Amino acid sequence: MAKALMLARLKQTVVAAIGVVFSITMFVTLLGFMNGLNQLLDNLVLNRTPHIRFYNELKPSPTQPVELSDKYRSFHNVVRSIKPAASRMSIYNNEAIIKTLLDDPRIVGVAPKIAAQVFFNVGAIDVNGVINGIDVEEESRLFAFDDYVTEGDFVDLKNTANAIILGKGAADRMLASIGDVVQVTTAQGNSIQLKVVGYYQSGLGELDNVQSYASISTVQKMLGEPPSFVTDIQVKLNDFDLAPGMAKEYSAIFGIDADDIQTVNAQFEAGSGIRSMISYAVGITLLIVSGFGIYNILNMMIYEKMDTIAILKAIGFSGRDVNLIFITIAITIGFFGGVLGLFFGFIAGLGIEQIPFELDALPTIKTLPVDFNPKYYVIAGVFSLVTTYFAGYFPARKASSIDPVDIIRGK
Amino acid sequence: MKGKPVLEAQNINKYFYSPEKTRVLKDVSFQVTRGEFVSVMGKSGCGKSTLLYILSTMDTDYHGKLLIDEELVSGKNANRLSQIRNEKIGFVFQFHYLLNEFSVLENVMIPGLKLDKKSKQELEHIAMEKLRIFDMQDHALKKANQLSGGQKQRVAIARSLMNDPLIIMGDEPTGNLDKKNSDIVFKIFKELAQEFHQTMLIVTHDPEFAAGTDRIIEMEDGRVLRD
Ligand SMILES: Nc1ncnc2c1ncn2[C@@H]1O[C@H](COP(=O)(O)OP(=O)(O)OP(=O)(O)O)[C@@H](O)[C@H]1O
Ligand SMILES: [Mg+2]
């Protein structure tokens, strides 16, 4: 029944379906592209950011000596101009901590790190910088370090003694090319010569101007510290939503400071949230507009087919049967329009993914990013059925309440 | 078989409220028994069509009682009434009212498809048989709008027979046809009465037609004048 009515009004039906196809295509493409970009930007920061970072913060000790004395403990003591104690930057007993962390099934991996303030001595001037001493393999595995080494080979950091990978910005400022040797002075005054084996480029200029990388043992040696010296422990989780809770949990257990990724990147999250909200809004608007198209066409169909509806009712079709016929038409349009739309959306996504997109700042990206997350396809599919159902609902109800006597008498 | 009431109207009254309250049917009571071929006559505007819509359960806004196949249908819900129409009543209109979206054969089959008691092949076979009665079998695969007026009306009658209804009701089924075609349709009705003992209640303006039926109900101004 529904089929015959649709065939009789093939043109309108096809137009309605094209509306759905178009909006679903746009919806899927837009969301895929928007979220591809979002992920790209997220990854720029989040991929390289540890989910939890343990460290010792320089701060005054919470109990001052006066409070330890038996004599003054019961008094209310005022101490002015408190300075931080010369406590260790190094994380005490870090090997045991790392071992405990690695036993936690929620944790993917752990990488120790030392951040050292240095001066690069370039001729007569000194350039400020930070050298990160890293566990080269773990850093690559967990935080995609290797992706951002744009020139040179990151393993040389481990295999060559006293090697350094310079931030691209820093290297440009120092006019240091690969193979050159740079002179480095630590804050404590130790000097050391390091060989440049590569450039590091994150895409975030301010990072690339100051950050350089060396192996953890090189930095320990440079600082004159023992192999147990570690200032940061970086943790990657299976599910980074757990980060705030776990940061608190372990911070209390180990008695050290911990930062979680959510707190550190809160404003970043907000940005990507707004971007995907906008794309959902545009997509859903498109779908609703096409829903109105279907509504119009079904309404027209019902006016044209009054006689048919009347005769069906006279023959013994109930209001419910008539309702079902028009709902079926709407859902069929929604279904086929939706399926085609998803297909074209997928094709459009593939197309966009072919468009070259190269930026110096984004070394890992060669083409425009598209996210093919099935979630968007499911949402679009469900939404096309829901909108077409509602678009069909009111015309169908009208059709089902047509009084055959009125129509037949009107002839 | 004969003597069993198929249709029973008891004191049916019908009012129209626009433009003002008018009583269009006044205490209409009669009975149609199985196998009867009844015609209803009366002046234009006396309420024949109105009565027929009530008897066919399409119009439920009336006072009085209506029994079909000894079942009280007044006050039944719309779904049950649809079922009764589908199973027990065949309706033929003045205008043929075929569905142009379908072929002739499909048009005849629709009531059977709705009833959903037989397979599609069986229904096709039955529909073909019905078309054969009216010598329309050669047109089975044409679209409904490719037929002449007289042919359409024959198909419409075939359709009304599809579920072997208890009673066929017609509202001036020959009213829109020329002499030749109305003669053909009239002959068909007589054949149905004589060969198949089909119970029929037909509204007509044609005295010749009425004269050929078993019984004439004459109406005037909303009342049954003579039975
Ligand atoms: N919807 C309506 N509202 C008000 N009055 C109506 C309505 N339909 C019909 N009538 C009136 O009811 C009366 C009976 O109409 P009906 O159609 O039953 O007459 P009829 O006997 O079939 O006439 P005809 O032989 O011309 O077909 C007429 O006077 C008509 O004007
Ligand atoms: Mg009439």
TrEMBL record, chain B:
Sample GO molecular function, one term: transmembrane transporter activity
GO CC terms in record: membrane protein complex
InterPro entries for the chain: AAA+_ATPase, ABC_transporter-like_ATP-bd, ABC_transporter-like_CS, MacB-like_ATP-bd, P-loop_NTPase
Keywords carried by this UniProt record: ATP-binding, Nucleotide-binding, Translocase, Transport
Superkingdom per UniProt: Bacteria
Record-linked Pfam families: ABC_tran
Ranges where the ABC transporter domain occurs: 7-227
UniProt keyword Transport present: yes
Xref: SMART domains: AAA (SM00382)
Homology family: Belongs to the ABC transporter superfamily. Macrolide exporter (TC 3.A.1.122) family.
Protein name: ABC transporter, ATP-binding protein
Protein's organism: Indibacter alkaliphilus (strain CCUG 57479 / KCTC 22604 / LW1)
